[in-house]
Amino acid sequence: MAQNSRPRHSMDPNAGAKTAATAVIAGRRPLLQCLSDIDAALSRTLHHHNLFPRPLFLLLELSADFRLFFPLALSIFLSPTLSALLRPFLVPLLLGLLLDLALIGLIKIVFRRPRPVYNKNMSVAVSVDHYSFPSGHSSRVCFVAALFYLTSESIKRAAVADHRLVLWAWLWAAATSVSRVLLGRHYAFDVFVGSCLGVLEGLFAFHYLSF
Length: 211
What we know:
Elements: H1 15-48, H2 54-63, H3 66-78, H4 82-111, H5 136-150, H6 152-157, H7 163-182, H8 188-208
């Protein structure tokens, strides 16, 4: 009896779906890699063509360091004279800083994007991790600026602030965020995401962490 020479078709009903999914993933990887390469090239160009003095960036870096900023905010909160006046700002500020620290740390652990290879000399603010995405300094300063803007009317009624301080807060946040790329600490996309995250944290702290 002649044997059936026709090829046998796969009996796996999911084979087609698996093949399609593999093709989609394979197509996405080059796109993501291309975007990452553009981000890295742009960041490297900005870093190498920086015309501003490096000590200025190091000063901005230090001013936004959690290990300096949080104790300073806590000491103001514990001050008997300033605490009552700045309470609408200080309570969500302290809680939001802790939230930002935890959230940024979690995202960095998940994505594990290495810092730029030209990132050198972090003697002023020693890095607590080796991951770049997102920028913790950018999220922190934008969080502070956003929260200060949202609470500025309450603080102004206490006669301890005016709108010019809000402007200075945003200028400080913008300068610090840009300095992260120019200093070589982060890629541009890290700073963009960190800044957006900081603004969202400011909104969240203003609406849900004010006591």
